[in-house]
């Protein structure tokens, strides 16, 4: 199970020139926003990446707040193959990683497979990943799960990290998910 002290989150390439081409992009963006807000409440560190920002643009404006305006620029599809990314992950000392973003069958999948090989416990947030076509997304999720990733959802991950009811943190997360639209 996810543990707050061992977990970081990785948001892959949620960029303003890429996301509009993704199937169900409104639902994807809404789910990512909910996840990011909850992760913020839980003080889970976030690393954001951008693939070739010159061509694919910046992180979506509605998600930039959660990145503190910081991201790691990359040209490799797998985030793990960028030195700056590996250094950022290493500095946080996490064993568990929550991964979400676009595109599921390219950058997300290659990152997940590399991080599994590097020994991380990877949690893929199924409602927070997207591709242009559902078949690419669905096939990639199955492949990552078969490789050892734990497939879960934003709401399940947030409550797992919350650990127990009856606390102010639980009430805050509960209020957040009760307002969920997607």
Summary, kept brief:
This protein has 182 residues and is α/β, with parallel strands linked by helices. 46% of the residues lie in helices and 19% in strands.
How does this model look, in words?
46% of the residues lie in helices and 19% in strands. It is of the alpha/beta class and 182 residues long. Helix 6 (134-147) links the parallel strand 5 (121-130) and strand 6.
Note the run of SSEs as H and E. Answer: EHEHHEHEHEHEHH
Number of helical segments with 4 or more residues: 8
Low-confidence stretches: none
Helical amount: 40-55%
Shape assignment: globular
What is the total tally of β strands? 6
Structural class: alpha/beta
Beta-strand content estimate: 15-25%
What is the topology, as strand order, of the major beta sheet?
A: 3-2-1-4-5-6
The biggest beta sheet reads: 6 strands, parallel
What value does the Rg take, in angstroms? 15 Å
Average of per-residue pLDDT values: 95
Distance between the termini: 24 Å
